[in-house]
Amino acid sequence: MPYFQRARNVELSIIQSLETNVNADWSGVTIVKGFKNAYVAVLPVVAVYEQDVSMFRQEIGNTTHRKQFGMVIDIFTTSNAQRIDLADYISDKIVQGFVFNTYAHASGDKSQIEASADGRITFISFTENRKVEITDSTDSHDRFRHTISFVAEKL
Question: Could you say which architecture CATH assigns to the domain 6-57+65-111+122-145?
Answer without folding.
Answer: 2-Layer Sandwich (3.30)
